[in-house]
Amino acid sequence: MKDDRRPMLLARTCALYGHLRPVLGPAAAVASLGYIAYLLVDGGPAALATLRQPRYEYLAAGLLLYTVCLVAGGVFWDQALRVFGVSVGIVRAVELHLLAAPTRYLPVFGAQYVGKIGLIVQAGVPPLDAASAAALEFAVICAGGAIAMLAVLPLSGPIPVAGGAFAALSGLSFGPAALALAIAPLAVAAGMSLVASSGLRTQARLGYGRALIWLAAVTVNWLLVGLAVFLLAGTAYAVAPEELPLYQFAVASALLVGLIGPTPMGIGVREGVLTLVLGSVVGASEAAALAVGWRLMTVAAD
Description:
Elements (H helix, E strand, L loop, with lengths): L1 H48 L7 H17 L3 H19 L10 H17 L4 H25 L13 H10 L1 H22 L1 H8 L1 H32 L4 H13 L12 H33 L1
Helix pairs in contact: 1-2, 1-3, 1-5, 1-10, 1-11, 2-3, 3-5, 4-5, 4-6, 4-7, 4-10, 6-7, 6-9, 9-10, 9-11, 10-11
């Protein structure tokens, strides 16, 4: 029975992508595929990586809503898209602790979107598509936050800081303009996350020397996961070089929508190292899922 259901599930997913691309544009459609990988791969390991009473209720709710979205997608497009957005928003909002202290993350959000839009444009995607994809992501997060607040979902999950992290790598692929564009967002994201999220008390507890080591470890994690994504994207490009801009956008989306793995904010050094290891594995797995899934859906849609 399972063998009969798998082709149907893939067909539903491909149909959803085929509808997303002409309606939302290629940028938003590829970003949505990144969310699919995020839902399927990241939620459970990310919650486990916090080492703080991990709970899976929000992940189960997101996957249930996503399944409903796939089943209904062949008939009720509008409702399916709304359900899909809500399920993603809930997972993102809870992971980011957006309900606990939203003002903490405004600088990080700002850096993330500045770097994201600029680098997507550098990848060859039209600016309007890049801006619309970022706006769509932010709207989904806000909507999910409101729904999560009403549902009183458990607050658990790490804080992925993606702002500008892709930039340090993108300079190798997109040229010095992208690297220059990313220096400020990267500095703001790293600095504000260290000061605002961890807090002065955490710095005092760890000591500034350990805090610097921790920050260096986070940077290495970004670089390793980013390298894995680039290798996967290069393999995909070898298969279909005519779609280079969308492959580049898939890389940017994967790294900047939160697929680089969790960042250990406000936890001890030992727990932080374990979180970084888990984050690297999760990030590489998500990148593989995104690259393979996007290629399969593109072939099926064509």
